[in-house]
Amino acid sequence: MTKRVVTLGEIMLRLKPVGFERFFQSPTLEATFGGGEGNVAISLANFGLDAAFVTALPMNPIADACIRFLRGYGVNTDHITLQGERMGIYFLEAGANQRPSNVVYDRAHSSISTAQAADFNWDAIFENAGWFHITGITPAISESAATLSLKAVQEAKARGVTVSCDYNFRKKLWKYGKSAPEVMGELVKFVDVGIANEEDCQRSLGVSVSEGDWEQGVSSGELDTARYQALAEKMFATFPNLKYQAITLRESFSASHNGWSGCLFNGNKFLVSQRYDIKDIVDRVGGGDSFAAGLIYGLHTGMTDEDALSFSVAASCLKHSISGDVNLSTVSEVQKLMAGDGSGRVQR
Fold it and tell me: What InterPro entries does this protein's entry cite (predicted)?
């Protein structure tokens, strides 16, 4: 039996204008819930794994609705601590064509930002756990959240649990006086599986390769995979504890049209996935989380490295067709896309 996957982080109320409207173009906002580690937990539960999400939420009806939301997708919420004053909020304006998406955060003094490591029962949290996932978003929220994040990965490693981390640099969040590399450099020393996009390694950890221009490559749709191999190898040299380094490869032709693929380095082989051309994107928020969940699912259930990478990229490709933060694709749908069935024909 596959052991439980545990994730820890902040889940927020997500408020978004209808469709592709600008903020308050009309007086309507769609209210859902989302956040990196919670998105991963929902994806994994949707894939049939035993997944638990750990966070802190206030005692109010909005938090109650959020917990029902998580439970509705089969996520274990037994280790959510009820404390603090408020739930974080983020506002999303979905971009289209040449207009980019925009995110506005309202998460200062949220429950997770004031939570302490002593508020959580680590023995109970990691009971029967085989995998723990966190992101670089949580340590960016506050100094206490950074301390909590470091304690969580230390507790996981002390129990022999595999640890994954999506480095997830968020420049709008690092405001409490410490830099991302200063904090993340300590946390990643306890990580087995690192996950990043084209710039996370540099901005979150200060690890970069000098060749080429990342921004130019991403915006032009011309990605040089040799640069990514050099970056993954440098990550292994900087953090010898790593067993895998995955990097998502997004080519942003516009907000509505992206190329999507990924690569994976295991210390010996550098693997590059199939590339998907995604047009008419419905919602790209959570795309990285769906990639992380797919990779965790593949590696945790014993797939080959090649198949785990293929599964993660196909899963995250499908996420771009689903509104909201979370990926609601099934294992069979992902497998069909992996096998080449991307026609979108009605299934009868």
Answer: Carb_kinase_PfkB-like (IPR052700), PfkB_dom (IPR011611), Ribokinase-like (IPR029056)
